[in-house]
Amino acid sequence: MNFLTKINTFLLELLGKSDTSLDDGIQGNIDSTRFVVLDTETTGFDYENDRILCIGAIVLQNYRIPIQESLEVYIQQEHYNKATAQIHGILRESVLNRPNELEGLQQFIDFLGDSIIVAHHTFFDISMINKALERNGLPKLKNKTLDTANLYKKTLLYSPLLVRKESYTLDELADKFDISKKDRHTAMGDAYITAIAFLKILNKLKEKKGFSLQQLFKY
Amino acid sequence: MKNTISQRVADFLKNFPPFSFLKQMDLEIISEQITIIYKEKDSVVFALNEETHECFYVVHKGAVALRADQHSDIMDMCDEGDIFGLRPLIANENYKMEARAYEETILYAIPINVFRPYALEKKAVGNFLIESFASNTLNPFSKSHRGKLYGEEIEADTKLLDLQEVKYSKKIISCSSSTTAKEAAEIMLNKNVGAILVVENSLPIGIITDKDLRNKIVTGAFPITTLASEIMTAPVITYPTKMTITQAQMAMMKSDISHLCITVDGTINSKAVGMLSKHDVMVSIGNNPAVLLRAIKRAKKFKKIKLIRAGILHLLQGYLDQNIPMTLTSKIISELNDACTKQVIGIVLKKMDSQPPVKFSWLALGSQGRSEQLLQTDQDNALIYEDVAEELEEATKKYFLELATRINKGLFDIGYEYCPAEMMASNPDWCLSLSECKNKVHHWITNTGKNEVLLSFIFFDYSLAYGDSDLVNNLSDFIFEDVKANPTFYIHLVSGALQSQSPTGFFREFLLEQDGAHKDFFNIKNRALMPLADAARVLILSHSVKSISNTAERFEKLAELEPANSELYLACAYSYKALLKFRTKQGLLHNDSGQYISLDTLSKAEKIKLKSTFKTIKELQEIIRIRFNASNIL
């Protein structure tokens, strides 16, 4: 470790931050990094009892989204909830040949690799996926994550005139960034809206001082 | 693999040629292999002489400018649904031009090897691609090709008038020979046109214009029940589809007529495909505010207004180039911008399910309220409506919020960005009944803090953009009375006005931005324009002058009211106009708001001129500081 890095680490320790946890796995720059933008449709919001019905995930790399490389996997579940079916429109038997949870997860894990995960309210999707992994005896996700709900707030003007909300919905982001809300509440449609919103957020944050991939995780 | 996104892409593509010629199934297969690309403003899609990509591009959102190279004029502008970068599909050589995102853009990249079989198989697809390719390759007259490929456009370039293809209206308003004069006139009224074509088996046999109706019907020569065949002018003068603006003008002059009928082969023996009016020709020339204004008033879609706004910017550029006085320039441009806003509101009102429950006024705030917004910047606006009975309050507010949300979206669609501070009528804070608004203002005036000053700065420059003027007058009267009763408010306003950052440092050098995206640029808005606008506002408020919100006009009024200081005020008015011109020119140059100026691009003379305005700012601030000294007021 050279002298400067040592000082840097020392200063960060003084501030109560640990540098190592951040640097781990997020070298490189935004242009070349592979992001996987995802959304899940679930039977509800209960981590224990509710189940994932569909995972929609798309690859975002170098400001490009290759449609061919995206993953849309509907999962066969026993648990079913009529109330949420009205939102996502996934009927119990509407898609034939759905993989079971384990197969669906494996497809997803293969697809994901070591990419950085981007989602809107990421914590929810990650928790659902991790619960499912746990049920199937698989280890939890170790990927770095970014949350557009959080990042969006950093693009807002710091002005006493602007009353900020605690949290912004994907609908609000779509309106602000003029993204069509077609296919809203399908995993893939939401993943796409999230991806475009993420790109637009990056474009806004770029104007800020010291913009870098690493910085995104500090916001 | 077929999925939700590829469907979404296919749904978009099917609306545009050449994809519209393909079967839905083929389109879905192609869509699965497309890459979606995000390009920030000014980023390059491909450069001159760059090796060709393995795909061509469709613009999904935004716009891409095609140029011969980085420094030359824009040859073509591709927007939603337009295709470009076709060279690799047709020729095996490097790109012969540069494509650059003109604004934030989303592209669909379509792999050549996937698409080629369809182009070969379907003749219509192949022909379209070849035609497109020919029109946006290096071709000095490429602008003349735009009409047929890129839909209706307002041509703003006057240099190549005699080569430009004219854009005619493809919607033919027609009737049969047995239609009565009265019915024909009703159709014309409904469609808002000045001429109607009389057709038989799709062939034009005559035309009835306003003039025919005037000369034959209104004079009483024929009753209004006369058949079209008796009053029409025949035969119709017809022309082929491809004619230039100059040709069209000549044709109209030659036959002394105001409408041309466009047919497939140019004779009366082929199908009529369009009409061309004198107005269409004038719009094509696009350098006349009256014509633009009429075009705005006729527009029924936001997209159309957006195109007209491009014409407005071109007009602005022309005025600046010809050194037309800034007062006149800003008047005309503001007038046109206001007309756009009015038209957007008109369109939205028509689409609402019901009429507004009570009277309302749409207020333009900030620079738009001051009629100083020449370029497209953010929208700042508010809506106030008449007070209603308590039980109706909720429903009324809901209606106006919905209305405002749609208007804000409409303004966004025609090119006004959303306000980053959410100072827009769709925000419940800025969609208020008259008494709510008065309460709010009263709160600012009596409980003044830093934020309240800031809010009043932006809000007090309001002007009525649409709707009822009584509401606004009522509010203005209230504000003047309330401020008079609470003189301490001036002290806050003044300290706010004096707080603006100084434009120059100790050695009279320009103070530049320290960091951020505009590091080393000069912020002309915050450091030069705002101090003047803020000072003018305080002074004019102290004289209780209503309904002048333009800063330069305020200074001119002040010069009248205070002869002792008239020289300084006139200098301020002059400086303000000069600064506004600087900003506008810079904005046009860089396709942005012009707020940040790169000093390197200014000539020595320009820098001196800029600095001389700063002296005026300092003197003005001195006057205010003394006049509104706390001890002098209380």
First CA to last CA of chain A: what distance? 27 Å
Shape of chain A: globular
Mean pLDDT of chain B: 83
Largest sheet: number of strands, sense, barrel closure of chain B:
4 strands, antiparallel
Strand content of chain B: 5-15%
Structural class of chain B: alpha+beta
Largest interface comes to:
A-B, 35 and 39 residues
In which range does the helix fraction of chain B lie?
A: 40-55%
How many domains is the backbone of chain A divided into? 1
Task: Using the CA coordinates, give the radius of gyration of chain A.
Answer: 19 Å
CATH-defined superfamily of the largest domain in chain B = Jelly Rolls
Biggest β-sheet of chain A, characterized?
A: 5 strands, mixed
CATH topology of the largest domain in chain B: Jelly Rolls
Helix content of chain A: 40-55%
Oligomer: heterodimer
Cα(first) to Cα(last) distance of chain B is 77 Å
Range of strand content of chain A? 15-25%
Number of helices of chain B: 25
- Helix and strand pattern of chain A: HHEEEEHHEHEHHHH
Mean pLDDT of chain A: 83
Keywords (chain A): Exonuclease, Hydrolase, Nuclease
Organism (chain A): Flavobacterium franklandianum
Protein name (chain A): 3'-5' exonuclease
InterPro entries (chain A): DnaQ (IPR006054), Ribonucl_H (IPR013520), RNaseH-like_sf (IPR012337), RNaseH_sf (IPR036397)
Description:
- The complex is a heterodimer of chains A (219) and B (634).
- Chain A is an alpha/beta fold.
- Chain A has a single domain (27-218), classed as Ribonuclease H-like superfamily/Ribonuclease H (Nucleotidyltransferase, domain 5, 2-Layer Sandwich).
- Chain A has helices at 3-14, 19-23, 82-88, 101-112, 122-135, 148-155, 170-176, 187-205, 213-218, and strands at 34-42, 52-61, 64-66, 71-74, 116-119, 145-147.
- In chain A, β5 (116-119), α5 (122-135) and β6 (145-147) form a beta-alpha-beta unit.
- The two termini of chain A are 27 Å apart.
- Residues 16-23 of chain A have low confidence and may be disordered.
- With 634 residues, chain B is α+β, with helices and mostly antiparallel strands.
- Chain B has 25 helices and 20 strands.
- Chain B has a four-stranded antiparallel beta sheet with strand order 1-8-3-6. In chain B, strands 2-7-4-5 form a four-stranded antiparallel beta sheet, with no helix packed on it.
- In chain B, α14 packs across α16, α17 runs parallel beside α19 and α23 (566-590) packs across α24.
- The longest helix of chain B has 26 residues, at 326-351.
- Residues 137-160 of chain B have low confidence and may be disordered.
- Classes of the chains: A alpha/beta (219), B alpha+beta (634).
- Chain A binds chain B through residues 56, 58, 63-68, 70, 72, 156-157, 159-163, 175-176, 178, 182-183, 186-189, 192, 196, 199-200, 203, 206-209, and chain B through 1, 3-9, 11, 31-40, 61, 104, 106, 109, 409, 412, 418, 420-423, 429, 450-451, 454-455, 458, 515-517.
- β3 of chain A pairs antiparallel with β1 (35-39) of chain B.
- Chain B: InterPro entries: CBS_dom, CBS_dom_sf, cNMP-bd_dom, cNMP-bd_dom_sf, Diverse_CBS-Domain, DUF294_put_nucleoTrafse_sb-bd, GlnD_Uridyltrans_N, RmlC-like_jellyroll.
